[in-house]
Task: inverse folding
C-alpha cells in the first residue's frame, strides 16, 4: 500500500500537465466548422449585410460571441460601431489561436502563456484523491488475483492469460471506487480560463447541483465510459508488462550463464531472479512498464477520445459549446452523436474525422502514460521488494526469539 501511494504521488506530479493538454485536445471540435446560417441572427440583417463580402475575420468585432469553440465568426453588437481606433486589438483570429491547440508542445505553451503555468496542474488535487486509493486497490488487487493460491482467476485461467484477466478485473474494482473523482477531474481540466480556486469551486458546485437534481447515482454515470477505456488498457498493459519483463529477465540470466528451471514454474523463477538485485528490479520493471504502457495507451486511444468527448458533453453547463451545438443538432431532427453508445460514437468519429479524429491526442496520452506506467510500476516493485525484506527480517527475529 505504501509503495502504491508513493508511486501515485510521484506519477501525478510529473504527468498532470500532459493530461491537461490531452483533455483539451480531445475535447476541442474539429478545425473545420460546419456551415452556419448567419441570417438567423438579428445583427446579420442590420450590420453584416452592408459589410464587404471579403472582410473575413481579420476585422475585430465590438462584441464577440463564440459559435462552438472555433471562433470562426463574430457577431457585431446592435449598437453603433466605434471608429477603428477604438476597436480592441484582441480580435477573433487571435482568440481562436489561443483556444485551439495543434500539438502537445503547442498546448503546453499556450496554456502556460495565456492561463498561467499553474493551470497545467489543474485537477492535481482530484488526481491525487483518485490515484492513491485507486492504485492501492488496483495493484494490490492485481497481485492477489495474479499470484494468490486462493485467487479464482489463478485457479481457472492458464498462466499465459492470467495477467490479462487479472488486470482487467482489478481495473473494474478500482474504477468503481474512483469514478466520481474521475468525473470531477475531467470537468476541471476541460475548463478553459478562470482562476484555479474559482474553477475548483464552480466544478464542485456543478456536481452538487447534479446530485440534487439527479441523485447520487449520477456520480457514477461516467463509469461505463471509463470502463470502455480502462479495462482494455489494463488487460493489454499487464499482459505486455509480464511478457516484456520476462524477456528481460531471461536475457539477463542467459548473459550470466544461468538457465531457468521450468519445473519450478517460470513465473516463480523469473520473479525470484528479478528480485535478487535491486537495480535489476528497477530496470526490468521500468522498461517493461514504459513499453507496455505506450503500446496499450496507443491501442486504446480511440476509447479515450470517445470517453472524454462524451463525459465533457454530458457534464458540461448549459452554456458550453458542446451543449449549444447539440441543441442545434436536435432542432434539425438528428441524433446527438455524443449520446450514442460507445461503438456507434467511435464509428461516427471515424466517418466524420477519419483515423486522425479517433487518435486525436495520442501523443500527449502516450507521453503521459508511458513514463507514468514506468514510474508507478518500478516504484511499486521496489516498494514490494523493500517490504518483503523488512517482513523477512521481522520473521527471522521472531524465529530467533529476539
Result:
Amino acid at each position: 500500500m505504501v509503495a502504491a501511494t508513493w508511486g501515485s504521488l510521484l506519477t501525478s506530479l510529473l504527468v498532470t500537465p500532459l493530461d491537461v493538454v490531452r483533455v483539451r485536445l480531445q475535447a476541442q471540435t474539429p478545425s473545420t466548422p460546419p456551415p452556419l446560417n448567419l441570417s438567423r441572427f438579428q445583427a446579420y440583417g442590420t450590420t453584416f449585410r452592408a459589410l464587404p463580402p471579403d472582410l473575413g475575420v481579420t476585422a475585430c468585432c465590438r462584441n464577440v460571441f463564440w459559435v462552438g469553440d472555433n471562433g470562426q465568426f463574430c457577431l457585431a453588437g446592435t449598437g453603433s460601431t466605434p471608429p477603428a481606433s477604438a476597436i480592441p486589438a484582441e480580435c477573433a483570429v487571435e482568440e481562436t489561436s489561443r483556444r485551439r491547440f495543434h500539438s502537445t508542445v503547442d498546448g503546453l505553451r499556450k496554456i502556460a502563456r495565456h492561463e498561467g503555468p499553474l493551470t497545467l496542474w489543474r485537477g492535481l488535487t482530484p488526481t491525487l484523491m483518485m490515484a492513491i486509493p485507486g492504485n492501492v486497490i488496483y495493484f494490490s488487487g492485481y497481485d492477489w488475483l495474479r499470484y494468490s493460491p486462493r485467487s479464482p482467476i489463478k485457479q481457472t485461467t492458464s498462466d499465459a492469460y492470467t495477467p490479462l484477466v487479472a488486470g482487467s478485473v482489478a481495473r473494474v474494482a478500482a474504477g468503481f471506487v474512483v469514478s466520481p473523482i474521475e468525473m470531477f477531474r475531467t470537468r476541471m481540466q476541460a475548463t478553459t480560463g478562470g482562476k484555479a480556486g474559482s474553477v475548483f469551486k464552480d466544478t464542485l458546485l456543478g456536481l452538487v447541483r447534479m446530485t440534487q437534481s439527479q441523485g447520487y447515482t449520477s456520480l457514477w454515470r461516467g463509469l461505463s465510459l471509463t470502463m470502455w477505456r480502462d479495462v482494455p488498457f489494463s488487460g493489454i498493459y499487464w499482459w505486455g508488462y509480464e511478457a516484456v519483463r520476462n524477456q528481460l529477465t531471461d536475457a539477463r540470466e542467459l548473459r550470466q550463464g544461468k538457465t531457468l528451471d521450468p519445473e519450478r514454474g517460470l513465473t516463480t523463477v523469473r520473479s525470484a531472479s528479478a528480485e535478487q538485485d535491486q537495480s535489476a528490479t528497477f530496470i526490468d520493471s521500468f522498461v517493461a512498464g514504459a513499453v507496455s504502457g505506450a503500446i496499450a495507451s496507443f491501442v486504446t486511444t480511440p476509447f479515450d477520445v470517445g470517453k472524454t468527448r462524451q463525459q465533457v458533453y454530458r457534464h458540461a453547463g448549459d452554456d458550453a459549446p458542446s451543449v449549444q451545438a447539440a441543441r442545434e443538432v436536435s432542432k434539425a431532427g438528428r441524433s446527438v452523436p455524443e449520446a450514442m453508445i460507445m461503438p456507434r460514437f467511435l464509428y461516427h468519429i471515424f466517418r466524420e474525422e477519419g483515423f486522425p479524429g479517433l487518435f486525436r491526442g495520442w501523443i500527449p496520452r502516450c507521453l503521459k502514460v508511458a513514463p507514468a506506467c514506468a514510474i508507478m510500476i518500478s516504484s511499486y516493485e521496489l516498494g514490494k521488494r523493500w517490504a518483503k525484506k523488512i517482513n523477512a527480517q521481522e520473521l527471522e527475529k521472531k524465529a530467533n526469539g529476539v
About this structure: The chain has 15 helices and no strands. The chain has two domains: 2-20+118-387, 38-99. Confidence is low (pLDDT under 50) at residues 43-49, 53-90.
